[in-house]
Amino acid sequence: MTTIFINGLGLIGSSIARIIRKSAPDARILGNDINKANIDFLLEHKIINEDTNFEDGSQQADVIILASPVNSIIEDIEKLSNLELKSSVIVTDVGSSKVNILQAANQLVDKGITFIGGHPMAGSHLTGSENGSIEMLANHTYFLVNHNGNNQQVNTIKDLLKSGQLRFKEVSADKHDQIVSTISHLPHLITYALTLTVNDSLKDVYATDISMGNGLLDSTRIAKSNPDVWSDILTSNSENLLDQIDAFEKQLAVLKKTIIDNKPDELRQSIVNANDARNGWENNAK
Q1: Which of 110, 139, 253, 258 is buried most, with the most CB atoms less than 10 Å from its CB?
Q2: Alpha carbon 203 to chain centroid, angstroms
Q3: Pfam families given for it (predicted)?
């Protein structure tokens, strides 16, 4: 029987637990979380088998999944490096940046422990184990950033997650962080800025009681994301994110100039180009 230990059973960790329970019904899933409600929910619904502490769960596990925020994952890797783990254990994670996590994982690799980074490209502004689901991750990209695993060990991770209908993509840590700074980290930062700008502008004209249209609400949904998680994520990939902020500011300046110069045709073409790009994203997701 394979023993899986998941540290962090919030939205993503609990979704991973659900997938593993479906993929490997006989697996023994141990869990740890600082929020007892997350543990209780998963025990009640028989998604995990046992609640345990970090040390005991790690030492019993054949596979360890670190599913806490990025900085906590780095701290957990250091803790693991000081524990007597099974020599065949596979350690993986779900962190949103990879260069710093793989650098930390050198502590494990130097001791002969296998580390295979992971990152599911899906989520929600909701939190907690009760809001996790298999469907939330289905048909989304799941990055695998292999540090020192062999093909069989990579396939072990894939097999445990096979019921999730995930789109596995193997990339380097550098490439991963460049990609997610573009498609995830920048959009979150822009959404926070947009929400704060609109809110401040409405205060200036004493119109904070206006009912917002669906366009604005849809565009700013991720402004409701977890502040602790996302402040951690955005600062963990700062160099790539700053490059993307520069690129965004250049694009915004181009659009601003069409307004200043009163060139509706140029502005229209930019909107057409944006339409085409957005439609292309939807086609790629099918």
Answers
A1: 258
A2: 33
A3: PDH_C, PDH_N
CATH of domain 3-171: 3.40.50.720
pLDDT, tens digit, 9 for 90 and up, residues 3-21: 999 999 999 999 999 999 9
Residue 101 Cα distances to 10, 35, 53, 229, 236, angstroms: 20, 23, 22, 15, 9
* Distance of alpha carbon 266 from the chain centroid: 37
Which of 216-234 are b and which e, b meaning 16 or more Cβ less than 10 Å from the residue's Cβ? eeebbebbebbeebbebbb
Residues 207-230 have pLDDT tens digits of 667 888 999 999 999 999 989 889
Q: CA of 240: how far to CAs of 93, 146, 183, 236, 277, in Å?
A: 21, 20, 12, 10, 22
Tokens of 150: 């062999």
Q: Which residue type is seen at 217?
A: L
- In sequence order, the β-bridge partners of residue 144 are 118, 170
Domain spans, the chain: 3-171, 176-285
Q: How many CB atoms lie within 10 A of CB 128?
A: 16
Single-letter amino acid code for the residue at 157: I
Please tell me whether the overall predicted TM-score, pTM, comes out greater than 0.85 for this model: yes
- The residue assigned the tokens 């997350």 is 38
**Residue found under tokens 């693991």:** 80
**Residue for token pair 């009681």:** 209
CB 37 within 8 A of CB 60: no
In the chain, helix, strand, coil percent, each to 5?
60, 15, 30
CB 63 within 8 A of CB 93: no
Q: Looking at the domain that runs over 176-285, which CATH code has it been given?
A: 1.10.3660.10
Q: Which two tokens stand for residue 178?
A: 């460049």
List the Cα angle 47/16/8 in 5-degree steps. 85
Give strand pairing partners of 92. 65, 116
